[in-house]
Amino acid sequence: MTETDRTPLAVFERHESNVRSYCRGFPVVFERAAGHHLWDTSGRRYVDLLCGAGSLNYGHNPPEIVERVTAYLAAGGPVQSLDLHTTAKADFLERFTSLVLQPRGLGDHVVQFPGPAGTLAVEAALKLARKVTGRTEVIAFTGGFHGASLGALAATTSPLLRGAAGVPLTDVTILPYGDAAEPDPFASLEHALGPGAATAPPAAVLLETVQGEGGLHTAPRAWLARIRELADATGTLVIVDDIQAGCGRTGTFFSFEDAPELRPDLVCLSKSLSGMGLPMAALLIRREIDRWAPGEHNGTFRGHNLAFVAGSAALDHWTDPHFTDHTAELTAAIRTSLASITDALPVGAAEVVGKGAMSGLRFPAPGTAERIREALFRAGIVAETSGSGHVLKLLPPLTISLTEWKEVADTLGDTVQVLATA
């Protein structure tokens, strides 16, 4: 056995597929996690601003959620139940409807559990939209990421992911996203959906109000309102992919709450829905378009009861004014910190992008964001890049204290000051 074979990473090199990605940028082995911290096998502690790509909005292993899950297991509750009725599912549905949907004007939406992954929620949404409208075409947008299964991938614009499909990706038209300066995104919307459009109306418009993997582009409210107007005029459904931006990540439970005109027909949720990283996804369907026949869309792991229990426990946060007040304070502090960092740089060296606790810094100079990410990791901070590597994306848990965030921001500011001006 060579010396390389005895390194902590050797087992992954020998046995895991070449497709692995995040781990390449963070070459350590993690063995423990709590709150906003990770510890590797050497005992070194890291601040986690990756948060499972936004699937840990309440931090690692929240004690109050872990306690509920372990109590459910200890009592012998069923873990896997297909779509059978269980007390765990009933509790989640009742609490989610009363605490989240009804107060936010979505009380007319029913919940479908398509399986444990976000891409499955997108697949279900696309299938249902096509079934309801009898149309095939879907409009999506530049920078969008909706998953790597073929239907969702057709609406995803990453060249790397699309190139791996192996088959043509069809029936999706990609338009400029709403914050694009050129070409005029309103013009492209009007051309595709407005009066006198050259093509037949699509089944649906699929969008993220904040693009996670696409570089933290944020949709203007007026653009979202125009999408709804054009959709209503053409019988087109509006699908919001809130998989990464939802569950409080932008400061409110849904990312589109400050754009009430959007009124989505279908909403895709996953990532932090379970509250502690257990796989879980849901599709919210406006009741009048819930036209599935029983079993027409299915999957073995629709009944992940541990995720239902954890998700119900996570909803306690949204009944706690201390949490909601802190979330508002934290999201404001993040934006203030990032603005202070960019103000200290030469004009044009970086800009603040994103929304709430899904914010970051965009650097026009190639490679800058990646160099900063590497330097932060050496300093004990785990963060990722997006937007073809031009954006440093920060996803701190909503439970990090303002004092702890300030410490992170100070380290970030010092690192950016050195590397963004080099």
What order do the helices and strands come in, and which of them pair?
Blueprint: H1 10-15, H2 22-25, E1 30-34, E2 37-40, E3 45-48, H3 51-54, H4 63-74, H5 87-101, E4 109-112, H6 118-133, E5 138-141, H7 150-153, H8 159-163, E6 172-175, H9 185-193, E7 204-207, H10 221-234, E8 237-241, E9 266-269, E10 282-286, H11 305-314, H12 321-343, E11 351-355, E12 358-362, H13 368-378, E13 381-382, E14 384-386, E15 391-394, H14 402-419
Parallel strand pairs: 3-13, 5-6, 5-7, 7-8, 8-9
Antiparallel strand pairs: 1-2, 2-3, 4-10, 9-10, 11-12, 12-15, 14-15
Helix pairs in contact: 4-11, 5-11, 9-10, 12-14, 13-14
Keywords: Aminotransferase, Pyridoxal phosphate, Transferase
Cofactor: pyridoxal 5'-phosphate
Pathway: Amine and polyamine biosynthesis; ectoine biosynthesis; L-ectoine from L-aspartate 4-semialdehyde: step 1/3
List keywords for this structure.
four-stranded mixed β-sheet; seven-stranded mixed β-sheet; 422 residues; alpha/beta; 15% strand
| Continuous helix count | 14
Main sheet overview: 7 strands, mixed
Our estimate of the beta-strand percent is 5-15%
- Radius of gyration, CA atoms, in whole angstroms: 22 Å
SSE succession: HHEEEHHHEHEHHEHEHEEEHHEEHEEEH
Regions with little confidence, pLDDT below 50 for 5+ residues: none
> Going across the major beta sheet, what is the strand order?
4-10-9-8-7-5-6
- Distance N to C terminus: 43 Å
Shape verdict: globular
Let me know the number of strands.
15
Structural class, by secondary structure, is alpha/beta
Q: Helix content range of the residues, please?
A: 25-40%
Q: Give the mean pLDDT.
A: 95
